[in-house]
Amino acid sequence: MQRFLPKTCALAVALVSFGAAAHHPWLVPSHTVVDNTDGLVAFDAAASEDLFEFDARGLPLDTIAVTGPDGASPTPTAVNTTSRHRSSFELKLDQPGTYRVANLTQGVMVSYKLGGETKRFRGTAQAWEKQRPEKAEDIRVTQLAGRVETFVAREKPSAKPFAPTGSGLELIPLDAPVDLSDGDRTRFRLLLDGKPLADAAVSVLRGGNRYRYKMGELTLRSDAQGGFDVTWSEAGRYWLGVNHSVPGEGGGAAPARRVSYSATLEVRPK
Best exposed site among 9, 120, 167, 237 by fewest CB in 10 Å? Predict the structure, then answer.
């Protein structure tokens, strides 16, 4: 899996919690299916309160991972811009089929006591080890991992689903996640470390919420095999998100892991 490394990861932006009033991280392609001669697709990466608007922060691009139709990992062509509110890059689709484009983040959230006062740290595991106070006590560490992704295709979507990576929280589309139309039903499976994640809450939001009084959020639950279906009621750009916490040993207050996933999908009118 090839990674693109133009700058240091900003975990405070990339590892965000999802909720009705929270910032939602997303990757948006200029096209979901392309048939142009060069196969070039541009992507915007940001986190925003109003879906797919540049009202908060651009996402870091140091851990962009691409999986091609043959399982290979092409490298993004170029970073067009990286600013406070928006990050952009391009990817050339060299072969027919579906590509998975993801922004991967990892880090830790730590609470500890120093001199009787509770302190907190959020950042990379390496940064914590460097900054960890020698006299820190009652240290509680929660591992953080996030995947923000989208799907694009050249000419014709692939018929075969992507192979799981076996790491973290991921979504496996069982039907083609591109070239969707209103009224279509798309099947998905949620996996955590390669195993089905049952009874997980899945949020589905349609873009353009800044122009609506209601968010119009659809909440679904995964079944025993991690599966769930979405029927697209109308055309538009959709955001799909999942948050999951893994309890710590002994049922402590701090979870051992917090994992998150989000995807951007485009639905066109029939």
Answer: 120
